[in-house]
Amino acid sequence: MSDGMEDLAFTPAAELARLIRNREISPVALMRATLARIEQSQPALNAFITIAAEPAMAAAQEAETAVMRGEELGPLHGVPLAVKDLVPTEGIRTTWGSLIYKDHVPEADAEVVRRLKRAGAIVVGKTTTPEFGQQSLTEAPLFGRTRNAWRADRTSGGSSGGSAVAVAAGLVPIALASDGGGSTRIPAACNGVVGFKQGLGVVPQEYAQDGFGNIAFLTPMTRTVLDTALMLEAMAGPDSRDPLTTGRSKPDFVAAVQAEFSLKGLRIGWRPRLGNAKVAAEVLTACERALAALAGLGAEITELTEPFENPERIWFTINGAYRMAQFGDLLKRHREIMCPTFVRQMDRIANCSAAELYEAIFQRTRLYRHIQSWFAACDIVAMPTLSRSALPIDQDFFGPIEIDGEPVENLRAAWYPYTMPFNLSGNPAISLPAGFDRDGMPLAIQFVGPMGGDANVLRLAAAFERACPWADKRPPTP
Predict the structure, then answer these.
(1) What torsion do the CA atoms of 158, 163, 164, 168 make, to the nearest 10 degrees?
(2) What does the alpha-carbon distance between residue 360 and residue 218 come to, in Å, rounded to a whole number?
(3) Distances (CA, A) of 270 to 24, 160, 377, 379, 380
(4) How far apart are CA 352 and CA 106, in angstroms?
(5) How does pLDDT run across 346-357, given as a tens digit for each residue?
(6) Is the bond preceding 41 in cis, omega lying within 30 degrees of 0?
(7) pTM confidence score
(8) In angstroms, rounded to a whole number, what is the distance separating the alpha carbons of residues 145 and 153?
(9) For a surface tag, which of 163, 285, 422, 424 has the fewest beta carbons within 10 Å of its beta carbon?
(10) Count of CB atoms within 10 A of residue 342's CB?
(11) Does residue 431 sit in helix, strand or coil?
(12) CB burial of residue 240 (10 Å; 0-12, 13-18, 19+)
């Protein structure tokens, strides 16, 4: 790829949309280059399950015609978009990362996909996900493993590993992801991109089977905070089919990140641990450096030392019972072709009683109230996104992970104790790049806001991005 096209591959969506509107680049030429880059990367990165080249080129041609006719254009007009393969897409294969659904083609888009298309984005394909999204390492019998954008011997994280790698490697400027326990923020941190899990009820999920107790979120995955705001602006807003979204007002997310924002007097609570005993020294150093930059802009940083119990068991019970209700019948009929890691997790939850489930639900409510109480003393809470950088690509999901040379048990509780709590509580949380470790792997910091504080979280993220920019950092071409 020429230097010009290489630069274009890493150009933010906001800038691509501007160039298209001004007729400085062609949606057709952009799409042709995008599809070529995806195809060339597949043997090395394996970020896509399905590449929708024909419909993408047809949509790009329509987008170009609209530009030439002077029609009114959406804020993402002509911008390539990758969609995680857990999200239904009309006429494009949606497998949920499972051999059971390897030939499934939905008849309708999910509402968020429809909204992103209405904003002008063009779906180029479906990104890799572990089976039914039930793993933080992106691998499945259907497609194999997805490697990290920075190093072939490291995991992409999960379960939105394909979306994170596609964005980090410059295959697409934006991607749709999902986050049920950290599934956006984990791979964002592993690959050095922006991963925002918005608050409960901001973005509709009209096809969720539990519209009231859902802990999974459909989310943006981008390289810049402005692109996250652009996606969220298109995706957010009420849908009568999702009871958690009804009657909610929608902030102007784009205006929030573009406005000049003084950090003077902003109270940031720093939590280096969140129910975990071990975190890599390089992670803490990177986060403390980020906080020092924010303090230099006027923020007031206070360490929070209040005890916090890791809620991994609560998450495991609620999520596991939900998935058993969803997929238990499939497990009976297709066990032999399903991901062994998924099967083992389902077997571990199989004997959960209704009383145990509801005790976990009660604990979830107590957790929400506890987290909300933090914001009496601070405006935003900061913490690492992960306890260490991306794990080895052959990491055993049920084995210990290594942190600073020491083995630590329970991958979920040890690696991402900082993400799961906010799926249960529903608070907005964003993972942002915060430098690299000695192996050249991305590190990340996470900002968490109170319920309803999505715009303020994005506003702080934008201020941090201006102080410590990262979008110019590119992984090596695979």
Answers:
(1) 160
(2) 23
(3) 44, 27, 12, 11, 9
(4) 33
(5) 999 999 999 999
(6) no
(7) 0.98
(8) 11
(9) 285
(10) 24
(11) strand
(12) exposed
Give residue 204's pLDDT band: very low, low, confident or very high (50, 70, 90). very high
* 440 pLDDT tier (thresholds 50, 70, 90): very high
Per the structure block, which two tokens stand in for 92? 């494009």
Give the pairing type, strands 267-270 and 300-303: parallel
C-alpha 335, offset from chain centre: 28
Quote the CA–CA distance of 219 and 116 in Å, as a whole number.
Answer: 12
Tokens of 201: 């009820």
- For residues 457 and 431, give the distance between their C-alpha atoms in angstroms, rounded to a whole number: 11
CATH of domain 3-467: 3.90.1300.10
Q: How many beta carbons lie within 10 A of that of residue 5, not counting itself?
A: 16
Q: Which amino acid is at 366?
A: R
Q: Where in the chain are the domains?
A: 3-467
Report which secondary-structure segment, H or E, holds 384: strand 380-384
The helix/strand/coil state of 92 is strand
Contact 176, 116 (CB under 8 A): yes
Catalytic residues: 84, 159, 183
Per the CB < 8 A criterion, the answer to whether 198 and 253 are in contact is no
Mean pLDDT of 423-428: 98
Which structure tokens are listed for 280? 């890599």
